[in-house]
User: Fold these one by one.
Assistant:
Number 1:
Amino acid sequence: MFSVELLDSALFASVFRALIPILLAAIGGLICERAGVFNIGLEGLMLSGAFAAVAGSYFSGSAYAGVLSGVVAGVAVSSVLAYGAVTRKGDPIVLAVALNLFAVGITAFLLVAVWDVRGVFQDPRIVGLKTMPIPALSQLPWLGSVLFNLTLVGYVALLVVPVVQLVLFRTAVGLRLRGVGERPLAASSLGVQPGRYQYGAILASGALCGLAGAQLSLGNVVQFAENMTSGRGWIAVVAVMLARAHPVGVLGAALLFGFAEAIGFRLQGNGLPSQLTDAAPYVVTLVALVVARRQFARASTSVAT
Amino acid sequence: MSVETTDVGMPAPSAPADRGRRRGPWPILRRAAMSLLGPAPVSIGLALVLGGVVIALAGADPITAYRVMGEGALTGPGLVNTFQRAVPLVGMALALAVAFRAGVFNLGGEGQMVLGGLAGTVVALFVPGPGLLVMLLAFAAAVLAGGLWGALSAVLETRLAVPILISSLLLSYPARYFSSYLVRFPLKEKGSSLVATEPVPEAVRIPSLLSESSPLGAAIARALGPENILVRLTSTLDWSLVVVALLIVAVLVFNRRTPAGFEAGITGLNPHFARYAGVRTDRLKVSTMFVSGGIAGLVGIMLVLGSQIRLVDGALIATNYAWTGLLVALLAGSRPLRVAVAGAFFAAIIVGGEAMQRSAGVSAQISQLIQAIVIVLIAIRVQVTWRRRAKSTVREQSDDLGRV
Amino acid sequence: MDEGPGGLRGSPPGPFPVRIAAHEEGDRVAELELRGITKRFPGVLANDQIDISVAKGEIHALMGENGAGKSTLMSILYGLYQPDAGEIWLRGERRRFSSPIEAIDAGLGMVFQAFKLFPSLTVAENVIYREEVTRRGLLDHREANRRVTEIADRYGLAVDPTARVERVPVGVLQRVEILKALYRDAQVLILDEPTAVLTPQEAERLFTILRALADDGRTIIFITHKLKEVMAISDRVTILRDGRAVASLTTRETTAAEITRHMTGRDVELRAWPVTRPAGAPVLTCEGLSATGDDGRVVLDSVDLTVRAGEIVGIAGVAGNGQTELAEVIAGLRTAAGGVVTIAGTEVSRAGVAARRKAGLAYIPEDRHGVGTAPTADATDNLSLGHHRSGPLVRRGVLQRGQMVERARELIARFQIKIAGPGTMVGTLSGGNLQKIVVAREMAYHAPLLIAEQPTRGVDIGAIEFVHQQIAQYRDGGGAVLLISAELSEILNLAQRILVMFEGRVVAELDAATATESELGLFMAGGGTGISAVTTVDGTESEHAR
């Protein structure tokens, strides 16, 4: 047993690496859910953000310009979803599925068009996000070196949870948003225009997914790979369902997936084939959903008796 | 698509009044002309324009690029290639269309196809016996594997309220990784540089429609010349084409002429209505997902036993047929004949995109881009939806306020 | 909790001072005036040159049958629709409302028939929505609750501001809606069919509240199609017919007969359909039927009932007391927690819907859009589903499309459904015609048992007569009918026996020939609970205590 502590803080570090993009995207999905839009386009929004972040960083030489362009790209793609689903009353599921495929296509296309690269693009000119250790706190043993040694995007992700919680449940905007999501007609009969809130929610999810993508391509690694989100956006969708659209619950769900990925990663180091450990987050996700639904079903029947 | 709305084989007791006024071919021609202005053609045109813009931004001449695309997809070997791609693409689209029509959003075609391919390959490699029999056994195994994987999603929804949309998608990943693991380790061909199984025995492979080595094929080839398009088509395309064509007919008959197909269609329109009228909607979901996944699995094994000959790691996914097929099914509104047309069209775009990449230096990804844009535009323009129900919000509005 | 004075604070509202007629016409500007309002929808002239004048502090009834144009008119007033022609004047000022919010800001408040509330929010949150009370940017729940309680107390609208709306009974929801309007300081309050969800006693209580509001100087517009309510509460009444305002009368100076004449130009009283022969053998029997709702609450509590061949049994009750669930459980759409159901001699307690239909069940559901039809399918498909399992629509396993169209054509003709043809989508039909699609399909089973749930809700008077006639003929042909309706007059006109449901239980059984509305109302409000012996019609005892 050599140095349990070292292994564990390494594990926590990879938990957080896995967690932050999923958390950001899931909070985006949560806002949409609360506004009554089932957004399954998180995957595509995140992928667009990841690409744009790499491009922005590459051309400007600044990681933060990269993050910003990731956010802009996420918002741009989500605006198509918002226009189609809200203004034109199109089916958000069809739109989101098509936009996910669009994002895969356009990023791979631009990879060739801009850098003449297929598959993975790595270049010294891409500036990655540096971690920003918080003095003293990051010296704390165990979690300290992980929790207080994140990138800027990482800190934003952890801050977003209480902020969204506060806005949703303690402010007028949050109250109106929840009302819109639950009964749009009731909201409009009182003069609240559901479309505006839904637009806002979808664009916000675009921005958050853009951030998530930037963390993925400039924080976790410094490169862009075709389809590099590989299902994380879908896991975020499930996180929202699992948490029944509560921010703190979403954090819990994201933690669960972070652990699944990190432990899978570690088992892989112990000689388990990567094909089996790679499946872990998806299986854990599904099992969690099944368990949660059962729990929920039981809870509601126990009320009866 | 008049075939779908005609009562095939019925004596047609009295021509329905609201369909009447059939004098001469004019109404049909007019309808054809009108449909050219319909949402699908307009969206396709617009998507091509947007694709052209993207091509221009990438530094190529869109007109040239599209010409290359058209020639590459519709002439000579390209046309053969288009047909070759169209077969599995239409198959996958059909698999998903069956589900969509019944109101089930199957997003897991990929995993179902992969597991079908895997199960079928295992049978083809290890079950001894006469070639044709083993082939059919492989087909059966593929249908069973894909079907059960699909049905699992449905059971998760009916028993545990986990939406099919989510579970079918998530189940694709373990299916992929499991298959990849088997191909990399236990099933890998020893001493080969390919990450793949051994090739399946010659006898188990799906033969081409008309092999050039067969007497008839040779005779025709001699008569028409080896470059003739018909010769090329019949010697390159295999019997999967026939299987998929039969599937289309089967789905068509099922939809229009069987009580179960009628029930599935109504369930897609309003599941509450169906349940109220005595349709067992839960059972229908499970069987629909079994059929949907089964067809996907069949497409998977036909790819292996037809063109790929062995199960190569990641090769089934790399075709992207599952996702392109989903777009095809949406474009076709889940109707079998339209699926065939739309599938052939998207196959042409794929093949043309590859030609573009070869000679115009534009990434072949342009085809996926254009296809996705088509669906986005249609969804925006005409509010295409996988569930053909009336929007509940519209209903609420009309009930509360519109009542006169 | 529901009853009783409005709380500890403030004085209870009544007794009221002697009512002074608030409208000495002519010497004052009308509070609200509609001039020449016209609204056309494709194919319908919904409002045709309507003039209405309402004085401050007046309770003005707006009367008319379904389809007369009441809802359209009020939607225009509330800014939901724009009139094609006409003017709205409020306190002597011409106004134009392009959205509800403009109407709200001008002091209008609307209580819709289908409540516009957010189930997961609290009563107070529903009331303050978009007019939130905040402190330093955050919602001030305590202050909101205080304000809501204050208004509620002033007018005797007892509510708990912290209760979640999804857990609140229907009668209280209406008070929440009224509170919403008062919180926004509505001077003109519009109520669309407010008594539809209330017992006669609850309605009486609502009237008390409305009178208090009018005495406070607020103006009430009260939409209804019930004559009795007009006579009981209104100062003046405007009668709409076919989109036109055919009369404006002062209630004290008119009679029920005169109003009736204006409404239809004929005798509006729906006919009764008396039985011609005695009931036969039991067709439907339920014993100890229990069920839980979607939220896990008990919605059916050991219900026993029998319906015999050739009789109509009416189920009366305020909406939400288990009637819908009773129909669903009998039809097999909801799983029973316990009990036995027998249809035409076959025990079907555990059977699915198809088996029950096979045993002899036909069912007209409450929700014709969501359950009774597929609005995006054509008439042929809508008229065939359910009949498609056996001949003549199926032969050797093959669906006979031609037969389906043929049969649809027959049913359309027989039930006088106004539709372009069997290939037309039914979602485009009017409420009455859509209902006829459902009725036609279910009648075509010739099943021994028919469950008819709200069979005439929201349909025009002609369709009501037609459906009633069909149901009566069905009974006279030996069918057993379970009629669930919120319209007491419908039940009294059609049924032979009446069961009253309250909180999931059958609390009374009455003979329709002798039952009165007030008697039914008492039981509907739970007044019959606690009585051990349920009164029976053919039983020897008939002692129902009050």
Note: Chain B touches chain A through 54 residues (CB under 8 Å).
Number 2:
Amino acid sequence: MSEEVNAAAARDERPVKVEVRHLTKYFDTLHVLDDVSFDIKKGEFVCVVGPTGCGKTTFLNLLTKIYEPSEGTLKIDGELADPKKHNLAFVFQEPSSFPWLTVEENLKFGLKVKKLPADVIEQRVERIIKLLGLEEFRNVYPASLSTSTEQRVIIGRAFAMEPDLLLMDEPYGQMDIKMRFYLEDEVLRLWREIGTTVVFITHNVEEAVYLSEKILILTNKPAKIKEELVNTLPYPRNIASKDFIDLRRHVTEQIKWW
Amino acid sequence: MKKNEGKADKLGRGMGASSYTYAMLSVAGVLSFLLIWQLLLEFKLVSGRYLAKPTELILLLIYKWTNAAPDGATLPVSIWASMQVALSGLALGIVTGVPLGLLMGWFKGIDKFVNPVFEIIRPIPPISWIPLTIVWLGIGLQAKAFIIYFSAFIPCVINSYTGIKLTNKTLINVAKTSGAGNVETFYKVGIPSAMPLAFAGIRVAVGNAWSTLVAAEMLAASAGLGYMISMGRLYARPDIILLGMIVIGLIGALFNGLLSFVENRVIKWR
């Protein structure tokens, strides 16, 4: 596959957005990440897959600087990543809307933290509300939303930031298949509209193949990159097509650690 | 949009009775209680020397509304005296207690600095401050407000502290990854998420303040509902004592209702 990666990478002329070099993390003696290096292009949709408990979430938390790496660097636009300076957004595994804010206020949260001018905030939030069809929920508190609507709000909130890097940690892990298919398409639509660089972590191979332009396959703990796979299937993807199934099978083979 | 809208009673225990029926049930409960009380005295099952009839109490209430005898103050004067004390002590307790609890719960340095002293003051019963307070401040408004302050302050601190400690870590991470610093995260995430428990603390504080008030006034006072009760004992007038108790109960319930109202306004997102 490696020639194919190089060929595809050569065709992709987008500038490098995120540069990860030799990222390593120990928790005391527990070795979680081992010398992980890769690039993410501007506007690229990257999925990270790996066996359960391999350190996927640690990997994301390093990218957002919730944890400091033991070794290695993470650069965004050539500068060391810093949540205060760079515009990062995160969609966590657990529902993370602020229960005391209405849908609209939730969407504005990160933009207000960034102290953007009021008219920019207004404009971006209106766009997200329109894109996600949240008009009727604008002044509703999350407690009265369904789980899937709440998750749409959270995803919308992340995209409203127009982040340099959007990190999503198994955002659909706890949803049924119908909701997942629906939200996968939503996320692709927002990504295409807004042109955000996305890192999407999942343990669902089909989801990774469906969404990504590039798949990073991690090994068991301590996690290394087993394969960096460029996914050139045309969007919208057909999960029943032969190419899709072949790719899915290949990724599944690569993940197997037994 | 609301999850429960239009659905029948969730547990099905009320068999879908209307809210009017429920209100009438509550009224009937109060009336039955009073009726049993009245009948016990009418049929001489309990001696009138120890207990007054509800009907007598209503007449006494009307009488006491304008007459100062036998304890030296009309009922409105007594109520006002007690309210002043309770509300000033309570307000001070909330205004200092809630912020202190929030700060202690969020900033570790403040916690370590304040907590040892707080832990020692905490188990001291508020009424044990009475003797010292009399020495310091006499038996006026300030003295009683000071005692009540302690009874209100402590639950405010403890609940706000616990409330902010329970802030969802994911929400904190959302704020931090958006680029918020610790102080901004404190007031944008910590404080709102601590509000429900802080309110529970204020609720406890109101109860404490009101019950401590009576104790404080029974020991040292020249006016107020607690004072009226202890005068009733002095004159061997159970009706005066009962009236004092009932008025205290009613005002306590009123406070609670008022607080629920404010709480629903402030925490409208639940």
Note: Helices of chain A lie at 2-11, 56-63, 103-113, 118-132, 147-160, 177-194, 205-211, 242-255.
